[in-house]
Amino acid sequence: MSKIAILGFGTVGSGTVEVFYKNKNNYQKTTNAELDIKYILDIRDFPDSPYADKFVKDFDVILSDPEVTVIAELIGGNTFAYDCVKRALEAGKSVVTSNKELVATKGAELLKIARDNNVNYFFEASVGGGIPIIRPLQQCLMSDEITSIVGILNGTTNYILTKMLKEGAEFADVLSKAQELGYAERDPEDDVGGGDACRKICILASLIFGEHIYPEDVYTEGVTSITKEDAEYATSWGGAIKLIAAAQRITPAAANTAGPASGECLEISVCPCFVPLESQLSGVDDVFNAILVRGEATGEVVFYGRGAGKYPTASAVVADILNALKPDSRSLAWDEKGGESCVVDYEKQKHRFYLRLCGIGKAEVNGLFGDVKFLRRENAPESEIAFITQEISREELNKKCGNLNVLGKIQIMNVREV
Ligand code: HSE
Question: 293 C-alpha vs ligand 1 centroid, how far in Å?
Fold first, then answer.
């Protein structure tokens, strides 16, 4: 009999318990083992829950029970959850998690502890909700050199952008709806400020780079300043606005910056982008996520599905539990960063930008930005002007914009990312 413990009975925790019991018989058949959830840890009381007899408040009860071999950490954050995961792995219990914050900040350390104790630390549910992406990257695509990963990795912001820009809904209303639907983080600033997508791209980049990539090294910009006017210009340009998380290997020569002197560099970012219609990412709407992986041999592979929500995420957690129970399963790992970071200064990288300005004429725009492509939208006020720049670094663009009245500034997704 393999006993499982669930830490945290929030949206994903309760979903995991439901999914597990709904399909328990099938799981037992496929694993050829008797399985059960023995404990659910939560500080709250759930007297009316059908699982009321399983609730405990003391993590040591779980830790000291030799019958428990797999723990699902669904608490979130990197304080109490970190302590529980570390102690569980050190005690020889495998851990599975949807906690991207913990994986993105302490992944290298926890993966090493797991390896040293011959147990697993799996985190399929931490990126892309129900979309299988971690295991495919680790296993199916391990034969290839992955050169870039570009995606829509936050369901909440994609839902908000879709409802705002396609249906005219108000930001605050759609955010409340996303919270109601169980898409948003406990602190939704993590979604709308880009932090959640940043943690996810760090996890994917760490996997492909084999070195821990930390969130604080990633250029991150959220979606709070995007307006319907910007969306109208995006449409007239021939695309859509999406929050894009991207990581790509580049050579030091291409890095256009004082990056690491040798070895490979990583260009990594999270920011809203104008995405051209020919990109597969431009039509990804609502809570859906899509992750475009480009490999040297494979070419492009796209992973698509529900990126957030109780049951999609719970199904990924349960799949990890079942994998962790397999006697021969082992988590792959990445190492702690040693020495200089491989991440280049994103603000020095050149991109094209959409700019929407007020109170400036075409001649002055051309004088400042050179040859640009002007855009139109219906019923634009006389004082408004919008255009696409030539390639320019953010640093240089911000300097040029210093004294201008900027109404909108959005990066154009790189052609190489399309
Ligand atoms: N808040 C996250 C999102 C949940 O919206 O994508 C899934 O990680």
Answer: 20
Cα distances from 355 to residues 121, 193, 242, 364, in angstroms, run 44, 20, 16, 14
% pLDDT > 70, the chain: 97
Write the DSSP assignment of 340-365 as a string of letters: S--B--GGGSEE-EEEEEES--HHHH
Rounded distance between C-alpha atoms, residue 63 and residue 93, angstroms: 8
For the chain, give the longest Cα–Cα distance. 76
What is the pLDDT, as a whole number, of residue 262?
57
Stretches where the chain sits below pLDDT 50 are 417-418
Burial class (CB in 10 A: 0-12, 13-18, 19+), 36: middle
Q: Which atom of ligand 1 is nearest to the CA of 191?
A: 1
Tell me the torsion sign for CA atoms 204, 206, 212, 215: negative
Give the nearest ligand 1 atom to 308 CA. 7
Catalytic site residue from 3, 106, 163, 200: 200
Q: Are 410 and 274 in contact (CB under 8 A)?
A: yes
* pLDDT computed for residue 329 by the predictor: 82
Does 326 participate in catalysis according to the annotation? Answer: no
Buried b (16+ CB within 10 A) or exposed e, 109-132: ebbbbbbebebbbbbbbbbbbbbe
Ligand 1 centroid, distance to 74 Cα (angstroms):
13
**In this structure, what token pair is assigned to residue 58?**
């003391």
Q: Rounded CA gap, 23 and 318, in Å? A: 10
User: What distance in Å separates the CA atoms of residue 1 and residue 4, rounded to the nearest whole number?
Assistant: 10
Strand partners, 2: 35
Ligand 1 contacts CB of residue 155 (under 6 A): yes
